[in-house]
Amino acid sequence: MSISKWIGGALGWSFGGPIGAIIGLAIGSMLDAMTDSKGSPFVDQGNSNQGRTTYRTHTRPQTQSGDFEVSLLILSSIVIKADGKQDQRELDYVRTQFVNMYGKDRANHAFRLFKEINKQKNISTRQVCMQIRQMMEHASRLQLMHFLFGIAKADGSVTSDEEQQIHIIAGYLGISARDYESIKAMFYNSSDNAYKILEIDKSASVDTIKKAYRTMAKKYHPDKVIHLGKEHQKGAEDKFRQVQAAYEQIQKERGF
């Protein structure tokens, strides 16, 4: 797959707004090496109208895999730089996850774009997140949060700066405090993590626990992101398994 087809065919609403501007700057720095044999830019002319799309719309279009992908690249760059340094393990995590999701060819294109995005300074976290919040479905935004915690944890621990940055992103994305704590608990070890994952207190009754499990299983079900493609369903399955594991742990502890 050519870089032309990947950029031109994979993106929808992210071609507009602040995310589109960031992508445009990244693409601009790649143009010299990324022209076809006729010397024309690698963004297909057939998608030129798409490139001028504004993200301010009352109708939320369905998020395409490419929209999720570039949103993830930008937010990943913000989190990786949150503690003032770029750990190679975090960069390797991003590359590995993209290879697992998309295969080597597409992952290589994505990572080249990621490196250019990573060079940009003064990216507005708020503007990027507000575009994502307005255009992306809630289930997909939860999947973004899960990935960002995975990046932060890739070097062995989540620093306070990284956690603070992810918390800021969550707020801008419209992620509730309970949803944030649920996903965060999947990356920490503590005695009450299972309860946090299910978004309940340790004093919850058995009926409340069962109801919470059904609610969370529905919220994190992989089918919620089926429109993003099989590659992102795999990531969603991880959250789903952790909800199941949390419920089974509580069942064992409480004996029901």
TrEMBL record:
Polar residues bias spans: 45-62
Keyword Transmembrane: yes
Listed transmembrane segments: 6-28
Keyword Acetylation in annotation: no
Top-level taxon of the source organism: Bacteria
Disordered: annotated span: 40-62
Alphabetical keyword list: Membrane, Transmembrane, Transmembrane helix
Domain called J: residue spans: 193-255
Pfam families attached to this UniProt entry: DnaJ, TerB
Record protein name field: Molecular chaperone DjlA
